[in-house]
TrEMBL record:
InterPro entries: PCYCGC. It comes from Salinibacter ruber. The chain crosses the membrane at residues 6-25. Keywords: Membrane, Transmembrane, Transmembrane helix. The keyword Transmembrane applies. Residues 34-84 are annotated as: Disordered. Residues 44-59 have a biased composition (Low complexity). This is Uncharacterized protein.
Length: 180
């Protein structure tokens, strides 16, 4: 009898472990396939496709000196109204976004907002309240506007200035090693 009890105990432990492994595996598969409950901030399928279709690796320096393939909207129709903000620097940046949307649409923003699957460029940071809370978004627009005011129209040169100010060390090194 003690042998049978011991076998039953081992069988119970084995079955419990197998059930635990199966549970963990199914939870992992659900997360991997995106079958989780939707949240208010979860990007839509269209937003994910728009972001993923731009380039294989956002932020990688391309031959044309840009870090993303400009796509989507390049006008200011979706930029939030500057009047809804109280901080002067935020209000000014949203005004800038309305003045130079095509330029901002070509600039990669180092705030990492693209990781949320919603934003495609610095312009998109101004299509919601992201830029109102982010010095990188605001600073990118300011650099672009100041350079445009000085007559710089090449977005690759503007991106290089943004990289120098806001990019990580590896991005600055890429710009230094860029032929041209």
């Amino acid at each position: 009898m003690p042998s049978l009890t011991r076998h039953l105990i081992f069988f119970g432990i084995g079955a419990g472990l197998a059930a635990l492994v199966l549970f963990v595996y199914t939870q992992y598969r659900r997360l991997e396939q995106g079958n989780t409950r939707p949240t208010a901030k979860a990007p839509t399928t269209q937003q994910r496709q728009r972001t993923s279709s731009q380039s294989p690796i956002l932020g990688r320096l391309r031959r044309d000196g840009l870090r993303l393939q400009p796509s989507g909207r390049s006008d200011s129709s979706d930029v939030l109204s500057p009047g809804q903000f109280t901080r002067p620097e935020v209000k000014r940046a949203y005004q800038i976004a309305r003045k130079i949307p095509a330029t901002l649409n070509k600039l990669y923003c180092w705030c990492k907002c693209e990781n949320r699957g919603i934003h495609r460029s610095n312009l998109a940071c101004f299509e919601d309240q992201m830029a109102a809370r982010c010095a990188v978004c605001l600073g990118t627009a300011k650099i672009a506007y100041e350079m445009k005011q000085k007559g710089v129209t090449d977005p690759a040169k503007i991106q290089a200035a943004v990289d120098k100010e806001w990019g990580p060390k590896w991005a600055r090194n890429q710009q230094q090693n860029q032929p041209g």
